[in-house]
Amino acid sequence: MELSERKKKVLRSVVDLYIRTAEPVGSKAIAELPDMKYSSATIRNEMAELTTLGYLEQPHTSAGRIPSPAGYRLYVDELMLDYRLSVDETKSINTAIEEKMQRVDKMVEKVAKLVSQATNLPAISAASHRGDACIKRFDLILAGKGSVILVMMLPNDQAVNKVIKLPVDVTDTDLKLLGAVLNAAMTEIPLEGFTAELMDKVMRSAGAAAPLVPVILDFAQETLRGQESTNMAVAGQSRLLGLPEYRDVDKAQRVMASIDEDALSNLPAVMQGANGTKVIVGPENVADELKDTSVVMTKFDIGDGMQGMIGVVGPTRMDYAKVTARLSYFAESLSKMFSKPEQPQLPEPVPEAKEE
User: Fold this and answer.
1) Under 8 Å CB-to-CB from 95, ≥6 apart: which residues?
2) How confident is the model over 30-82, as pLDDT tens digits?
3) pTM for this one?
4) Which of 26, 218, 247, 312 has the fewest CB atoms within 10 Å distance of its CB?
5) Long-range CB contacts (< 8 A, 24+ apart) of 255-262?
6) In the sheet that 306-315 helps form, which strands lie side by side, from edge to edge?
7) What is the spatial distance between Cα 156 and Cα 160, in angstroms, rounded to a whole number?
């Protein structure tokens, strides 16, 4: 059912007020908003219908309403207004990420701390290869009777090698033929291109050296998987303890235990192919411990085949517009920073940005 503009305005107001107060919202509070032109009775009726439709929930019979996961989803997708960063906020972020960075692993840790400070929420930072790593060249060298040295050239002039014990006797001529076949069929393709069909095709063309092909294919796949490894850091988990939703110690501990590198390691994969910022609201999370929690993520380019990801984890009533604006600004600034010839280095975390 398509919501009327009035229902959308009421829903947006409920979410905005609940984000600010963490208390159920009543019709009177909405009616007192400066831009609200409807009476308290009209608003009350709209809130009742929004509850029936599943966009609002009523925690207690006499209480106001709070947004449901469906309400948050509609808010994020259609209703939230753009948030403009203040001059102080942009200055704080720029100061934090201006200096030069030399090591990606240190960057990941520092960016997580900076994002956590800027949003006052637990933050995630990751750096990974985009998944487009490939093999540029194969070379096979006969290393005496019974063994061959396989050399694979990767992007950025990186070389890896492996000594292969020969299951059969081969000559230099056999290895040259195999090398030519490998360079024609198995270079400049991503990991998913190394299929059983490709192996059969190469083996049919490899002549006497065909028994080497399965070993070479396995080593090539193992190498490319290593090129896709992700470096991740999480910071600021304890910030959840200051939020009303996590006053229950048991609940807070369960959520905090789920916000670590292992539990969140699949989030970079969620970002694959996504453009802009991605929001995962409450029940859309895979982990049961995060069903009452939202995750907001965005990507940035690092260069040299690397991609960065930053995100925050917080209650479903988080200020999505403000968090999205801050993450987007971080991502844009980091992408610009990494586009420079020399990689910048982040300073120590800066004082937290003031909430408006």
Assistant:
1) 347, 350
2) 999 988 989 999 999 999 999 999 999 988 877 789 999 999 999 998 888 88
3) 0.62
4) 247
5) 255/289, 255/290, 255/292, 255/293, 257/289, 258/287, 258/289, 258/290, 259/122, 259/234, 259/313, 260/234, 261/232, 261/233, 261/234
6) 230-235, 123-129, 306-315, 293-303, 277-280
7) 12
